[in-house]
Amino acid sequence: MITKIDNRVKTAVVLIPIMLVGIYGLPLAGFAIFMGVIAVMGAWEWADMAGIGERWQRFMFSAAVGVLLLVLYALLDAEVVSFGWLLALSVGWWLAGFALILCYPSATRWWASPWRRVVAGVLVLCSMWLGFYWIKSADDTNLLITLLMLLVWGADIGAYYAGRAFGKRKLLPDVSPGKTWVGAVAAVVSAMIIGLLVVLVIVNTQFWGWQDYALLMVFAAVVVVMSIVGDLVESMVKRHRGLKDSGSILPGHGGIMDRIDSMCAAAPVFAGFLYVWPAL
């Protein structure tokens, strides 16, 4: 146990500065590459989760995701395609993911094929990249990305401690035995509180009415609910494959996908919400 904690701390000491530099220290193009590298690393792990055992096949899948992201970047930069349509596709995929976890295991037939899981992996990773890229391009102050991370990380912390202390009734035991209803509710409440605090500290709310605060609460709740969906979709695929972790590249933390699963869903939903309702 002590060794595991030590490994988690050591990994965090290395990982946190890299993430901070990647998120706050890079221009938009550099940030797009940074998130692309994370997505490609996640693709290597997802290929294994999809049941692709051959290393050359996993390499080809990872390379294909990288090439697709380069194409997306070029098309968006040239304004050939619209962020709006791509974000709508991403949010639609995650709503489908929500339905799949609610229907697990009866709906397994819809995605059990390795190649269908490969397609799902493309949607998971590309939607994450797209969400982060739009957020970064829409706000050069990095406030929006900071808010997204605070919402998801704060919700994770709230869910963890509340779930351990009071969680008894399982949320979706067939998908993830560790998650409880108490933890999920605590995650949503934590996100609402964090969102409210961030707005009160940073935003001029002089002309805000109750509708604005209500919208903020809905926004925070939806983003965090979808972050839980992202976590559960990965758990569902791992469970089907018989895996505990997506990989072992991060000692004490598992794999890349284990660290970004929540953000994979939260980022595009966060971006989509603000794209549709920019006044928020």
From TrEMBL:
<comment type="similarity">
    <text>Belongs to the CDS family.</text>
</comment>
<keyword id="KW-0808">Transferase</keyword>
<feature type="transmembrane region" description="Helical">
    <location>
        <begin position="141"/>
        <end position="161"/>
    </location>
</feature>
<feature type="transmembrane region" description="Helical">
    <location>
        <begin position="115"/>
        <end position="135"/>
    </location>
</feature>
<keyword id="KW-0443">Lipid metabolism</keyword>
<comment type="pathway">
    <text>Phospholipid metabolism; CDP-diacylglycerol biosynthesis; CDP-diacylglycerol from sn-glycerol 3-phosphate: step 3/3.</text>
</comment>
<keyword id="KW-0444">Lipid biosynthesis</keyword>
<dbReference type="Pfam" id="PF01148">
    <property type="entry name" value="CTP_transf_1"/>
</dbReference>
<keyword id="KW-0472">Membrane</keyword>
<feature type="transmembrane region" description="Helical">
    <location>
        <begin position="213"/>
        <end position="233"/>
    </location>
</feature>
<keyword id="KW-1208">Phospholipid metabolism</keyword>
<comment type="pathway">
    <text>Lipid metabolism.</text>
</comment>
<keyword id="KW-0594">Phospholipid biosynthesis</keyword>
<keyword id="KW-0812">Transmembrane</keyword>
<feature type="transmembrane region" description="Helical">
    <location>
        <begin position="12"/>
        <end position="44"/>
    </location>
</feature>
<keyword id="KW-1003">Cell membrane</keyword>
<feature type="transmembrane region" description="Helical">
    <location>
        <begin position="82"/>
        <end position="103"/>
    </location>
</feature>
<feature type="transmembrane region" description="Helical">
    <location>
        <begin position="181"/>
        <end position="207"/>
    </location>
</feature>
<dbReference type="InterPro" id="IPR000374">
    <property type="entry name" value="PC_trans"/>
</dbReference>
<keyword id="KW-0548">Nucleotidyltransferase</keyword>
<dbReference type="GO" id="GO:0004605">
    <property type="term" value="F:phosphatidate cytidylyltransferase activity"/>
</dbReference>
<keyword id="KW-1133">Transmembrane helix</keyword>
<protein>
    <recommendedName>
        <fullName>Phosphatidate cytidylyltransferase</fullName>
        <ecNumber>2.7.7.41</ecNumber>
    </recommendedName>
</protein>
<feature type="transmembrane region" description="Helical">
    <location>
        <begin position="56"/>
        <end position="76"/>
    </location>
</feature>
